[in-house]
Amino acid sequence: MTTYGGIDLGGTKIQTIVMRGDDRTVLGQARSLTPHKGGPSAVVDALVACMSEAAAAAQLDVAQLDGIGAGVPGEVDAAAGTLARAGNLPEWEQQVPLAALLSERLGPSVKLGNDVSVAANAELLLGAGRGAKSLLGVFWGTGVGGGVALDGQLWHGRGDAGEIGHMVVKQGGARCGCGRRGCMEAYAGRRAMEAKAKRMVEKGHHTDLFEIMRERERETLSSGVWAHALKHEDKLALRLIERAVKALGSGIASAVNLLDVELVLLGGGLGSRFGEPMLERILAAMKPHLFKDEQPPTMRLASLGDLGGAIGAALLCE
């Protein structure tokens, strides 16, 4: 039996799976929080532990796997197996030979891919994008990532296609984690939203967001914290989500105007958590910016949920 490991590394969580190669069945899985300090070495330790746990859940030793794929954020050099400038990971600016480090610790060879691109490919092959000739996957979580498929194939460009989170939605706007101004992610990324909430609290605005975070024993304003605050109509949470939706609407519409894709998929921690009602709000925010507003693309939620990124990573080994 051929088995592959899949790692989805995000700014908030790590999701790992073991997948059977012949029918792509998930045999075991594990999940843990992404370290917020300790730099790349702490992240590597967490990845090794989480991948080993998924293998154990599949009743396998991790060294028995036939390969491991890892979907990671930042600048990925798949050929070299390196990751650099991962702004949503702790102290990860310099190039790190992540594939080699993981392979040395786990045993099987490791292949790297962009986290959102591999998730989009999984949706294209196995999820809500099956049958689509063209799609834009938008994954709304700690940051905002994208994946593009044209003529039924994932489009990589020169290696970094799909970075929709860094489309400029406001000239000279808010500072993004990438160091530039006005990026969609600076308004809609969960980390940027949390930073904005903290600044507003310091200026005297009231919110229950951070109290909910403490009650739920979270270290960050997770998607669950935002959902709880919205349910109870927290004014600051409502204001920041509306700000995010406007940014998503203008950015996604601009991408649709350029590519004319037939399908837009919404996933990621926040996208999946908020579901269909948020999908409708984003479409409404897109329409004023669509060149063909009478013929918008089909909008769907990504269907593979929290496992989509890890499944896409495992597919790198096929």
Plain-language structure description:
Strands 3-2-1-4-7 form a five-stranded mixed sheet, with helices on both faces. A five-stranded mixed sheet has the order 10-9-8-11-12, sandwiched between helices. A two-stranded antiparallel sheet has the order 5-6. The chain is built from ten helices and twelve strands. α3 (115-126) packs across α10 and α7 (223-231) crosses α9. The model has no long low-confidence stretch (mean pLDDT 95). β11, α9 and β12 form a beta-alpha-beta unit. The longest helix has 25 residues, at 235-259. The chain has 318 residues and is of the alpha/beta class. The two termini are 14 Å apart. The protein is 39% helix and 20% strand. It folds into two domains: 3-119 and 307-315, ATPase, nucleotide binding domain (Nucleotidyltransferase, domain 5), CATH 3.30.420.40; 131-302, 2-Layer Sandwich (Nucleotidyltransferase, domain 5), CATH 3.30.420.40.
Task: Give the SSE layout.
Blueprint: E1 3-9, E2 13-20, E3 26-33, H1 39-57, E4 68-72, E5 75-77, E6 82-84, H2 98-106, E7 110-114, H3 115-126, E8 135-140, E9 144-150, E10 153-155, H4 185-188, H5 190-202, H6 209-215, H7 223-231, H8 235-259, E11 263-267, H9 268-286, E12 298-301, H10 308-315
Parallel strand pairs: 1-4, 4-7, 8-11, 11-12
Antiparallel strand pairs: 1-2, 2-3, 5-6, 8-9, 9-10
